[in-house]
Task: structure prediction
Amino acid sequence: MSTPLASPRELAPLVDHTVLRPGAGEGEVERACDEALQHGFAGVCVREAHLALVVRRLAGAAPRPIAVADFPLGAAPAAARAEEARRLAALGAREIDVVFPLPRLAARDHAGALADLSAVVRAAAPAAVKVILETGALSGPEKAAACALALAAGAAFVKTSTGFGPGGATVEDVALLRALAGPAAGVKASGGIRTAADALRMVRAGANRLGTSAGVALVTGSW
Result:
């Protein structure tokens, strides 16, 4: 952010309020939508099964309906990933958080990863795409390569983690992604952000979006 945050409440426009736990019920999703409306969060991020409910509940208000794709493994065939992105956009997702095609990265198939992500970005339009790198599972060179490929494919954001992998967001990874992305793309910190103090560290490191299921605790807490 361009100006310092004066209070935790100013975090609200950065928060993607998440309900991604397998087995989450409709009541939990409805509550998350109501909290997003009450506090002015950036959006509500869910799996496909709950997307239609989020679209109805938010009903064109400022918080965006957000859906995850090929989540959390990033291992589906490229055609299936693009089709999922197309379907989510048609259902009303304004942003789609897709996991990087991690098997391609492991195989150093950078051309294949770029083609995969480019197809997802095209299929998702007009929804913006955030690419989840799962930084806790990657080496330094792999993080740099994945970030560069995501941005080359047209991603609007690069994102640290699914929250279901070997590690969550760290200040070091957020700072690295911001340095690699520069000012043109967004950086989303996600995974393990539970308090306002956690969130502030991520914002200071360069994050301009925060994925967390603890959005209310963030904005009503203290530094």
Q: What stands out?
A: The beta strands are 15-19, 43-46, 64-69, 95-99, 128-132, 157-159, 186-190, 209-212. The first strand starts at residue 15 and ends at 19.
